[in-house]
Amino acid sequence: MRPGWRLVCVSSVSGKTETMTKERGNTMMKRTISRLLILTLALSLGLHASLAEESREDLIVFAAASMTETLTQLKEVYEQAHPDVNIVYNFDSSGTLKTQIESGAECDVFISAAPKQMNQLDITADPAVNTNGLDFVLQGTRINLLENKVALAVPAGNPKDITSYDALVDGLKSGAILLAMGNSDVPVGQYTQKIFAYYGLDEDALAKSGVITYGSNVKEVTTQVSEAAVDCGIIYGTDAYSAGLQVVDTATKEMCGQVIYPAAVLNVTRNEETARDYLTFLTSETADAVFEAVGFSPKHD
Predict the structure, then answer these.
(1) 270 within domain boundaries
(2) pTM score of the predicted model
(3) How confident is the model over 263-279, as pLDDT tens digits?
């Protein structure tokens, strides 16, 4: 074999090997660059999202437990229109919320299930109600937002065949019915006490006879009825609707007065402009539709 041929062949194989090596190197380099670009983009997007989240303004709203479903739904609507705002809710009994505000809890907007708790924080209210002279309501922002109804609700199937408040009274007197109601510091419990007074019932005597159980807020009372732990419960019409409970009777104005939900921006807010805007949103047609769907009646006065 001629030496030249061997040199040519070796040179050819060597050239191919070198070319393949370069191609592999270029491919690996492209993959590395691609991965770096993807990683950089991911980090950039993550940082952007983190910064966006940090830049959102928290609006803290204390609201009666009976507004949990409606306000949670409206939170999504408001935040979609105001992506720089993050609504933070605190749902509980109005009495508990009032105590938290009085104790210094951070809050921008307060919505109570009764005027009493709002009055106790309003310096312009009757001193006989605001006995401690508390001044938390930002004057000029307070409105009567909604009206609710005090409903007599029963578990599925209505085992005791309760048909009205009159029937409830007869059952309590005979000891045949177990009723769930709110504590005395809870608006729904206070409305129940007015119903007792209307019928001339002695709550202490009924409690001692074992025909009454209590809940620390309307949601606890509603749960007792839903789970059939009691024969019936006095709750708000909106809570009965949300829980899918049957309402057999509704209290009249003469029995317990009107169930008004006042709302106001607090003067301790750090976000007055946003708080005012949110409260205005709660009086919009969009909000009214959500409230009316569960049985609230918008007031706006």
Answers:
(1) yes
(2) 0.77
(3) 999 999 999 999 999 99
